[in-house]
């Protein structure tokens, strides 16, 4: 006899709660792993073991005839492994650095509901459950609030998979004494947000931040005679559209932020790229020490002599010392036409002797060299099998 739908749903609900209990138990075990590695000083990640775990789980499911696709198993456990890695990383970092204040102040661009706000919440929640949010009207104001001790940390977007580098943030990094202390990636899911039931043919004005407009350019070009209004942030756009309450206007932003302003989704998935991700950096007045057991990055700011091959000679040093360079970005130097300043991101801890030797040699090939920050990465690359 077939079960009633309500009975089936009750069984699913119970199974889901059992799964949550098991996930909680596994999450707690990550702290035990971190304590063990703290004593043995083993590297936080063991990608070979992660690969072996995934292979064994897939094989176990096949032997038990669980009828689960390998891709399904892999995607679920990659997320579980990511949580374990980040949990261990936060534990080691908290042990190494002074305890943060009870009321951590965090600065970000825009109001509640902006992407920077959501990324900020995502970052801080791992370290501290209570925090105070400080919305800012510009990237420069984020730097200022941290510099003036109004905020403990600031969250700033550095690059996006669709629109590329956020040049304004790079330029501000040239002139700051703040230190980079972290990074994270946040998925960006743009949608069209409106007040009431309407359709795209009625929309003649779109409000959003310039970066959002750029990332949704293909969708915007598909519309007829639409006027663009640029705002300080996507959250400002949502607030404005909500207050104007007109059927012919819409904001481009995220669904969660739209709910805060009483807006509904008219269309989703409007970004040029489906896999749209923004990388955010975290800045602080004081540098944080980074555990040698953690995957670490360092961002450098450098100028080289205006001679043929000078940049190539400088970059060759990283190959010599087997240091992986993950980013090279150039920006013009104000007051010096046609001269460039280079941002170099390397996967290295500045306290490691090998890195110190490389940086010492790099000084001989540069006119100017500054360490903007050495920081743990919260971007956990999943292993493949």
In short:
This protein is of the alpha/beta class and 385 residues long.
Please explain how this structure is put together.
- Catalyzes the Claisen rearrangement of chorismate to prephenate and the decarboxylation/dehydration of prephenate to phenylpyruvate.
- It is found in: Cytoplasm.
- Its EC number is 4.2.1.51, 5.4.99.5.
- It is a single chain.
- This protein is an alpha/beta fold.
- The chain has 4 domains: about 60 residues, no CATH class; about 90 residues, D-Maltodextrin-Binding Protein, domain 2; about 80 residues, 3-Layer(aba) Sandwich (D-Maltodextrin-Binding Protein, domain 2); about 80 residues, Alpha-Beta Plaits, CATH 3.30.70.260.
- It has 12 helices and 15 strands.
- Strands 1, 2, 3, 4, 5 and 11 form a 6-stranded mixed sheet that branches. Strands 8-7-9-6-10 form a 5-stranded mixed sheet. The protein has a 4-stranded antiparallel sheet with strand order 13-14-12-15, covered by helices on one side.
- β13 and β14 form a beta hairpin.
- α1 crosses α3 and α2 packs antiparallel against α3.
- It is globular, with a radius of gyration of 24 Å.
Structure characteristics:
alpha/beta, D-Maltodextrin-Binding Protein, domain 2, 5-stranded mixed β-sheet, multifunctional enzyme, Bifunctional chorismate mutase/prephenate dehydratase, isomerase, coiled coil
């Amino acid at each position: 006899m077939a079960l009633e739908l309500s009975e089936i749903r009750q069984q699913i609900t119970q199974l889901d709660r059992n799964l949550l209990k098991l996930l909680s138990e596994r999450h707690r075990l990550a702290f035990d792993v971190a304590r063990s590695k703290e004593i043995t000083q083993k590297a936080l990640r063991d990608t070979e073991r992660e690969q072996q775990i995934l292979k064994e789980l897939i094989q176990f499911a096949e032997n038990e005839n669980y009828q689960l696709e390998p891709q399904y198993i892999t995607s679920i456990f990659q997320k579980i492994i990511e949580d374990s890695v980040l949990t261990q990383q936060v534990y080691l970092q908290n042990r190494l650095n002074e305890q943060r204040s009870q009321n951590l102040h965090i600065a970000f661009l825009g109001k509640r509901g902006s992407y920077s706000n959501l990324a900020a919440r995502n970052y801080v929640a791992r370290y501290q459950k209570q925090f105070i949010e400080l919305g800012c009207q510009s990237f420069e104001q984020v730097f200022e609030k941290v510099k003036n001790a109004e905020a403990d940390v600031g969250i700033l977007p550095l690059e996006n998979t669709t629109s590329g580098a956020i040049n304004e943030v790079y330029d501000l990094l040239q002139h700051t004494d703040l230190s980079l202390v972290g990074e994270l990636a946040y998925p960006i899911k743009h949608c069209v947000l409106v007040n009431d039931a309407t359709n795209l043919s009625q929309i003649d004005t779109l409000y959003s931040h310039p970066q959002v407009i750029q990332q949704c350019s293909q969708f915007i070009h598909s519309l007829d005679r639409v006027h663009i209004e640029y705002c300080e942030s996507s959250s400002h756009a949502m607030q404005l559209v909500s207050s104007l309450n007109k059927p012919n206007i819409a904001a481009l932003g995220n669904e969660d932020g739209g709910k805060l302003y009483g807006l509904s989704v008219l269309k989703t998935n409007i970004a040029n790229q489906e896999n749209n991700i923004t990388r955010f950096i975290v800045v602080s007045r004081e540098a944080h020490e980074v555990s040698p057991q953690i995957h670490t990055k360092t961002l450098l700011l450098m100028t080289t002599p205006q001679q043929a091959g000078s940049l190539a000679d400088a970059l060759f040093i990283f190959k010599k010392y087997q240091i992986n360079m993950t980013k090279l970005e150039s920006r013009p130097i104000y007051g010096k036409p046609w001269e460039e300043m280079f941002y170099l991101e390397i996967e290295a801890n500045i306290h490691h002797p090998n890195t110190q030797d490389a940086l010492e040699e790099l000084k001989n090939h540069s006119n100017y060299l500054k360490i903007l920050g050495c920081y743990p990465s919260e971007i956990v690359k999943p292993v493949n099998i």
